Amino acid sequence: MKSVLVIGIGAGDPDYMTVQAIRALNEADAFFVLDKGSDKEDLAALRRQICDRFVEGGQYRMVHATDPERVLRDGSYDADVKAWHEQRLDIYEGLIRDELADGEAGAFLVWGDPALYDSTLRILDQLAERMAERGTPSFGVQVIPGISSVQVLAARFGIALHGIGAPVRITTGRLLATGWPEDANDVVVMLDGTCSFTEVDPAGIDIYWGAYLGTPDEILISGDLAGCTAEIQQVRAAARERKGWMFDTYLLRRRAGA
Ligand SMILES: C[S@@+](CC[C@H](N)C(=O)[O-])C[C@H]1O[C@@H](n2cnc3c(N)ncnc32)[C@H](O)[C@@H]1O
User: Fold this and answer.
1) Does the pLDDT at position 36 exceed 80?
2) Distance between CA 200 and CA 177 in Å, rounded?
3) Is the pLDDT of residue 39 over 60?
4) Nearest CA to ligand 1 atom 11
5) Which of 78, 95, 111, 240 could form a disulfide with 246 if both were Cys (CB 3.0 to 4.6 A apart)?
6) CATH number of the domain located at residue range(s) 2-147 in this protein
7) Domain 150-254 - what CATH class?
8) Mutate to test the pocket of ligand 1, among 18, 40, 247 (most ligand atoms within 8 A of CB)
9) How are beta strands 205-211 and 219-224 bridged, if at all?
10) Ligand 1: distance of its center to the CA of 149 in Å?
């Protein structure tokens, strides 16, 4: 039987690789990399750096495939994402079918943690279903957790993500733009291409904003939301322009009594 290792590599710093992740790297016969275009070259470079550093003997097989562009048409967001996932499903199927011999293990190196805003596990699940329907031999999956950008954000600011015994909401910029989540005091926002914090009433809210966390380009800004908004927008736009891509995550916290 073939097997697939889904390895969380941490969100930025190669030192975030866990002992378990390093062990899994050394069990893999091939690494599958989906190239996302020149703006993500830095992320591909980090994956290579991790393999060079942690694969014993420095010899490894990296198999590249092109990640399809996500096309947002006039239709619904869900339908567009579903169509994009279908294309990725075909690619994953090809990689496992053509690049692994029986008994071999292929590894997907997943940024941060595979459980958080990453489609790898969902696609592998759908693929296993598709193969079962067709009666083709399936594959085993093992997941190795990684340090997510959310954990790095909290660590870099030295904060807990929630009040004592209280919940924390993790959401996307797109959803935040539709309104502050009900009953939430602490909201972590990821995948925000449009500074959705500008849509929030800033009264009584603090922001802890981190970009390129764990990398040499890391930027941290925190404080009263009203006072920080313009600075974050300006710094973010300049950094995006300079590097060609942006990864930022932030916590919005309602101050006690606000
Ligand atoms: C496709 S999701 C992947 C999340 C990843 N699985 C994780 O555990 O962090 C990409 C989003 O994660 C966040 N992100 C990932 N790495 C980051 C980093 N080093 N610094 C800041 N945000 C990051 C950003 O919100 C980005 O838009």
Assistant:
1) no
2) 8
3) no
4) 191
5) 240
6) 3.40.1010.10
7) alpha beta
8) 247
9) antiparallel
10) 5
